[in-house]
Design goal:
about 750 residues; alpha+beta; ligand-binding face of the semaphorins, domain 2; Immunoglobulin-like; Rossmann fold; 6-stranded mixed β-sheet; about 25% helix; binds 2-acetamido-2-deoxy-beta-D-glucopyranose; repeat; glycoprotein; cell membrane; EGF_integrin_2; Integrin beta
């Protein structure tokens, strides 16, 4: 295990050191400054004389560190640095007048393509942010009891909200339904007085009516709402979405200011949506424009269909209008679903007679304004914007499409880290805004990409270019008739001269100039891309890989062949040249002399196994013939020669004393051992016959199995055994008695066997 760790550490270390090959490869295929700086992490050296003769222009593109290492002086490294300039960053301010919650307000960024840049956006929720509240009420017949209450409501709402901010204005609007069949009855008398009860005051139906533009005068609110009469329609759903649309887009008529804009929607029924207009023969989709006549009534309601929820959502967001739905219990779920689909909005339960509406508004306002959603609008598609949020309640999120914090109290600050990444060069400066939803405060972000080189070394007929070319970013572009790094080579017209120059660009019998990876200039190869060598025949990425690293990370790719570090070998330097792992602890020969040490690992010869090949696969079988031959012939002098075929160099020795021996032949017992220091094999035998040797004593494998079975049975199944033992007490006693008579107990023999010699046990 230790070895594996060491190897891993080495690999990591080497990857770091040799890592420059890869990244430089990415840079070194760019043969102009502009192409070079468009690659993330690449820089261009414009220094004159930076290149060796014959080096390609692309060698000027490298990592900034690579260029420094190659002695490009700092002032000559073209590596446009990302810039972040804060143009405007007013302090957070609260109180009446100019409130500042969002910082900064204007940023100017210059980005490198593919290199993320981050900046901080800080939002501090301020006290006393002015509020415009427009109260939108369902005027259908069932709401008649509520109308009386609402008249005095203006004063209460103003009082409640003035607790939160000193500047509050309030307005009032109403909705019933589009005055068209089948939403209303078109009977002449019903058109004028649609209410069921003929005695109560009633007004004709309308889709939306702006009763009172925003005002801070509570008396005016009471006066104008008092003059209003209830109305009625036929079907259950009302034209609520029409009303929300008009109240939102009619900025001038409603009088919305650049403040927190809240639309309170009260109703005791559901709403018509896009498509319902077809019932009345209305086919034009909603145009999202304001159409109020001089009386404040939406007079194009019979021309345009109800708006879709998506359309409404977009219009609300663009106009920073937040919605509070105050609806009766029966339809809460419908409105909750609607609220989900809209930007900042909440739903509260309205009592049957609207008595709790003030409390509801002040709670909902608190909830609404404690949610901060930071979004961007109008960012170019190639610009990726992501947000990390650090909220005041400790919640943190990262990599989101918008910044999001909830439970933000008054005077709490929340911070967002915004990350911008340009995937391609932008054609021109682009400006987009980042803003909290429902607020008119904006952060303007101007971005441009650093995709050009400002080398400031342009020189026509530069002496550096032999007076025959124009210098730019360290490169010569030669005039007609000249070529070479410094336009030093005249392009000869004569074929034979070109031929002689070409010969020195051609490798041995190659048909291609510069191996097809470069151009022959003045008799020298100028290599393209990452190719190197006199004939551009070397590809530093062509060497064998190991673990996906060129030369296994342990060598240098020298023209297609790995030059391995001293302690490594192999075509991809994948092998450690060390042999320590092939040697047993007390060993003197690699792999005990029975295998090859390759890549610091033993590959054992046939018949041997184990980490150091110190184990025999079938010792008894392998030496059986040898022992048999030897025991039959040992007394004769030529014994060893006779047994040459079976024994090879092995000389089994006879042991007089009877010992534990695990192998047997027809005539004797024997055992095979290995000296782990030298790897030599020692075979010894006795002249005892099998007659004295019970089977379990002689066959080692059998003994081991029986032993292991017994041990595990005792350990795991002890309890079971006890029970079985008791049940079979009589029987087993009998058996044991018989066994005792026959030989020594089975236990004893098994135990001594294993503890006596564990030659082949691992
Ligand atoms: C860089 O300059 C140093 C000192 O002048 C020199 O020893 C070294 O060989 C140079 N390296 C290269 C890559 O030219
Ligand atoms: C205003 O706030 C005070 C204390 O915070 C509270 O007692 C009072 O009832 C509030 N007024 C209204 C109209 O909600
Ligand atoms: C406001 O939030 C509280 C919990 O924070 C919730 O219980 C209450 O219903 C919410 N009120 C409205 C009108 O959304
Ligand atoms: C936001 O940043 C300010 C410092 O700029 C720090 O004092 C404040 O604790 C941060 N707030 C959060 C919620 O991280
Ligand atoms: C081009 O270079 C050659 C050789 O260096 C020089 O003799 C010649 O005057 C140069 N041409 C111009 C137009 O400068
Ligand atoms: C080049 O060609 C000659 C004869 O055609 C041959 O003997 C020689 O080995 C070739 N050299 C190489 C590098 O292929
Ligand atoms: C062989 O075994 C017998 C007893 O079984 C013993 O007397 C004799 O010495 C042994 N012979 C050799 C050569 O070990």
């Amino acid at each position: 295990m230790k070895w594996v760790w060491l190897a891993t550490a080495l690999l990591l270390h080497c990857t770091e050191v040799r890592g420059t090959v890869g990244s430089r490869g990415g840079c070194q295929v760019q043969s102009s400054c502009v192409e070079c700086v468009r690659m993330p992490g690449c820089a261009w050296c414009k220094q004159k004389d930076f290149l060796q003769s014959g080096e390609a222009a692309a060698q000027r593109c490298d990592t900034p560190e690579g260029l420094r290492r190659r002695n490009c002086s700092l002032e000559n490294v073209m590596d446009p640095r990302p810039v972040r300039e804060t143009v405007r960053d007013d302090e957070h301010r609260s109180g009446p007048g100019a409130v500042v919650q969002l910082r900064p307000q204007n940023l100017h960024l210059k980005l490198r393509v593919g290199v993320p840049q981050t900046f901080e956006v800080k939002f501090k929720r301020s006290e006393g942010y002015p509020i415009d509240l427009y109260y939108l009420m369902d005027f259908s017949y069932s709401m008649r009891d509520d109308l009386a209450k609402v008249k005095t409501l203006g004063r209460k709402i103003l009082a409640a909200l003035r607790n939160v901010t000193s500047t509050v204005r309030i307005g009032f609007g109403a909705f019933v339904d589009k005055p068209a069949m089948p939403f209303i009855s078109t009977v002449e008398s019903k058109l004028k007085h649609p209410c069921r009860d003929k005695k109560i005051p009633c007004q004709p139906s309308f889709s939306f009516k702006n009763v009172l533009p925003l005002t801070n005068d509570a008396d005016e609110f009471e006066r104008s709402v008092s003059q209003e009469k209830i109305s009625s329609n036929l079907d259950n759903p009302e034209s609520g979405l029409d009303a929300i649309m008009q109240a939102t887009v009619c900025q001038k008529e409603i009088g919305w200011g650049k403040v927190t804009r809240i639309l309170v929607y009260t109703s005791d029924d559901i709403f018509h949506t896009a498509g319902d207009g077809k019932l009345a023969g209305i086919y034009h989709p909603n145009d999202g424009q304001c159409h109020l006549n001089s009386e404040g009534i939406y007079d194009k309601s019979q021309l345009y269909d109800y708006p879709s929820v998506a359309h409404l959502s977009q219009v609300l967001s663009a106009n920073n209008v937040q919605l509070i739905f105050a609806v009766t219990n029966a339809h809460l779920s419908r409105y909750k679903a609607l609220s989900e689909a809209l930007p900042l909005s909440v739903v509260g339960e309205l009592k049957g007679d609207s008595s709790n509406v003030v409390q509801l508004i002040s709670y909902a306002y608190g909830n609404l304004s404690s949610i901060i959603l930071l979004e961007h609008l109008g960012a170019p598609p190639s610009l990726q914007v992501s947000y990390n949020s650090h909220c005041s309640d400790g919640v943190q999120t990262s990599g989101r499409r918008r910044g999001e914090c909830s439970n933000v109290g008054i005077n709490h600050q929340v911070n967002f880290t915004v990350t911008l990444t340009a995937s391609v060069c932008l054609q021109r400066k682009e400006t987009f805004v980042i803003k909290p939803q429902g607020s008119d405060e904006e952060l303007h972000v101007t971005v441009e990409t650093l995709c050009d080189c400002d080398c400031r070394d342009e020189e026509e007929r530069s002496p550096y270019c032999s007076g025959n070319g124009t210098l730019s970013c360290g490169l010569c572009s030669c005039e007609r008739g000249y070529e070479g790094q410094r336009c030093e080579c005249p392009q000869e017209e004569y074929d034979d001269l070109v031929l002689t120059l070409d010969t020195s660009c051609r490798q041995a019998n190659d048909t291609e100039l510069c191996s097809g990876h470069g151009t022959c200039v003045c008799g020298q190869c100028v290599c393209q891309g990452h190719y190197t060598g006199d004939y551009c025949h070397c590809d530093p990425t062509s060497c064998s890989r190991y673990d996906n690293l060129i030369c296994g990370g342990h060598g240098w790719c020298n023209c297609g062949v790995c030059d391995c570090d001293p302690e490594f070998t192999g075509v991809a330097c994948q092998c450690s040249a060390l042999t320590d792992q092939c040697l047993a602890e007390d060993g003197m020969v690699l792999c005990s002399g029975h295998g090859q040490c390759q890549c610091n690992q033993c590959h054992c010869d046939a018949g041997f196994y184990g980490e150091h090949c110190a184990k025999l696969t079938e010792p008894c079988q392998q030496y059986q013939a040898c022992v048999e031959c030897f025991s039959a012939n040992e007394l004769q002098e030529d014994g060893p020669e006779v047994c040459q075929d079976d024994c090879g160099s092995i000389r089994p020795t006879l042991i007089e004393e009877a010992q534990e021996m695990f192998c047997q032949t027809k005539h004797c017992l024997f055992q095979v051992e290995m000296d782990t220091r030298t790897g030599s094999i020692l075979v010894s035998y006795t002249n005892q016959t099998t007659m004295n040797c019970p089977p379990w004593k002689c066959h080692r494998d059998m003994t081991l199995m029986v032993f292991l079975f017994t041990v595990s049975a005792v350990l795991l199944g002890g309890g079971t055994l006890v029970i079985i033992h008791r049940v079979n007490l009589k029987t087993s006693n009998k058996v044991m008695e018989e066994e005792n008579k026959a030989q020594t107990p089975f236990w004893n023999s098994a135990m001594t066997k294993v503890s006596g010699s564990d030659l082949f046990l691992d």
